[in-house]
Structure prediction request, 508 residues.
Amino acid sequence: MSTESVISTQSAPPPYELYPPARTWSGRIYNWVRQLPRFATHQAIYLPTMRRSRRRRQQPPTANMQYNHQPLPPHANRASTLSFHTVASSAYDCYQYWVAKAQSLPKLPMPASVARYRPLMVCLCILATLLCSFLLFCSIFFSPLDLPDPVFPDQVLPINGSARILTQNIIMRPPGIKNNWSDYKDERIDYLIEHIFPHYDIICLQEAFAFATRRKDVLIREARLRYGFNHHVESPRKYPWDVGVDGGLLILSKYPILKRDSIQYPRGTHSDWLSLKGALHAQIQLNALASFHLYTTHTQASYDLNNVINPGDTSIRLSQFAMLHDFISTTAGNDNDPVMLLGDLNVDAAVHRPDLPLTHHSKESSVYYTWMTKVLKGEGVPASELGDVGNDDLVFSHPWRMPDLVDTVYAEYGYHPVTFGDIDVLINPTQIIPGETILTDHDQLMTVQSIDRLYWSARNTSRLQVVQPVVQPNKVKDNPDLSDDDRQAIHFTQISDHYGLMCQLHLA
Prediction:
């Protein structure tokens, strides 16, 4: 006697032919889950009778055996007696294979005390799968990669030789963050490797974030294999459970690094709350007798409204500068090696007077720049200047000081050159247009700010001298290695919304 029962087409569910046919792979999978055949859809729906135990399955049918449904009538036609297994095997070629495979798998009966928690166990298995997938994703996109062995030997600076140093904010933020249509991150990474790295011996980068991307690892690997940057220091990597991204700092050096350190500032405000900013230190050995301390940092950005300075941002930056000075005193206070501090300090040193044109070069320094320099030297700022009227006590002061700390670019130019939000002047001086529009935020166009710094403290050492500190716009149109066709094929006009600063460190 057949073990299948028939349900009349007058009862629910309706015949298969009333279900819409699947037109996509996802639809076929969905219909397969619902056990809808692709062929012979005009038949009535048959449901298999469930047997209660394996022992009853082995017994021959008797007159006393009770069924849950009526048996199939003997006059039923062939099309009506097709079981789901028969139809599924004709619709899906691999169905019978997997059915046979499932029968051969070992069957482990679940104890009744455990089987009652089967839904909970299924949920736990799903959660464990999601957790393992998440950890695998983090290990692929958040952990640093193993670097290959160096190809080139470490560089040694000879007497009367010079090392070329660059600092550059490359606005290489995590995936999905952009100012305009596109930041062209991958294209700019390739441009940096091909056209910028070959010209320098030590490179300091800001906004080179490693969060959820491998671009930073590509920079480090290619710099090592192609140009001999065998040593590097970077901001500590962050993971999703840190609720923040890394500081985005990177130091690349062809010279050996004797000591490396890093600090992390307290969280900033606005979007800087998610960027765990800080500072890096590298004691770089130029040769057996000469070394210097190199520091790079990226501090709290300014979020000003209507060109009014935000006092909260200013206070946070001053506290970060005080932490940075303490960091320098801790790592460089026990020797007399010179100190170089560079990076995107986010303090506009220029004074913008409304009665002067945008093309005017500011020789005067802003009060915020003066405060920053005093705090970095360790001198501190009078509390009365910060709004505490009548209080002449110094805040952010430190017993260890660098009185000879010099802004080398300002000393070289005699004014504060623009490093962010620059302008281009056309034939007539009154025709002024933004210098860069692809990467720069529209609110920052033509703000002509001077926010990138290159400080130097000789510390009574005359053997090492900073010479020729200049602004490096790194514009595509000024690259002599590119043809006109190459320039037309590049979608950006410069490698960042910031200009870089470079200098030569001369060993006498």
Remarks:
- The two ends are 105 Å apart (CA to CA).
- Residues 142-507 form a domain with the Deoxyribonuclease I; Chain A fold (CATH 3.60.10.10).
- The longest helix spans residues 118-141.
- The chain has a mean pLDDT of 86.
